[in-house]
């Protein structure tokens, strides 16, 4: 990717943190609902698995983006000197 695009992507990285917080809270509430239901409902287990999957994918994407932005910033720092 070009430099201008990476600058924009890394600037928008801060917007991913609230999304992760919301997905984490949703997963936490799903765990509470699952435990309250005593694990008897198949629907609550399905919701719990879907929430866990969303949280795992979002966390993985955020970590990958963080690593790429960090590499980009290191390259920028190296190019300046």
How big a fraction of the residues is strand? under 5%
Total E-strand runs: 0
- Order of helical and strand elements: HHH
- Overall geometric form: rod-shaped
Largest sheet: none
Distance between the termini: 22 Å
The radius of gyration computed from the alpha-carbon positions, rounded to a whole number of angstroms, is 18 Å
Unreliable parts: none
Transmembrane segments: 20-39, 45-67
Keywords: Membrane, Transmembrane, Transmembrane helix
Mind explaining what this structure looks like?
The structure is a single chain. By secondary structure, the chain is an all-alpha fold. The chain has one domain (3-80). 85% of the residues lie in helices and 0% in strands. The protein has helices spanning 3-11, 16-36, 42-80. Helix 1 packs across helix 3 and helix 2 (16-36) packs antiparallel against helix 3 (42-80). Keywords: Membrane, Transmembrane, Transmembrane helix. The chain crosses the membrane at residues 20-39, 45-67.
């Amino acid at each position: 990717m070009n430099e201008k695009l990476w600058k924009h992507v890394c600037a928008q990285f801060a917007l991913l943190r609230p999304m992760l917080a919301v997905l984490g809270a949703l997963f936490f509430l799903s765990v509470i609902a699952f435990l309250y239901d005593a694990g008897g409902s198949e629907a609550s287990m399905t919701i719990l698995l879907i929430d866990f999957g969303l949280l795992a994918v979002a966390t993985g994407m955020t970590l990958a983006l963080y690593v790429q932005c960090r590499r980009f910033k290191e390259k920028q720092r190296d190019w300046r000197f």
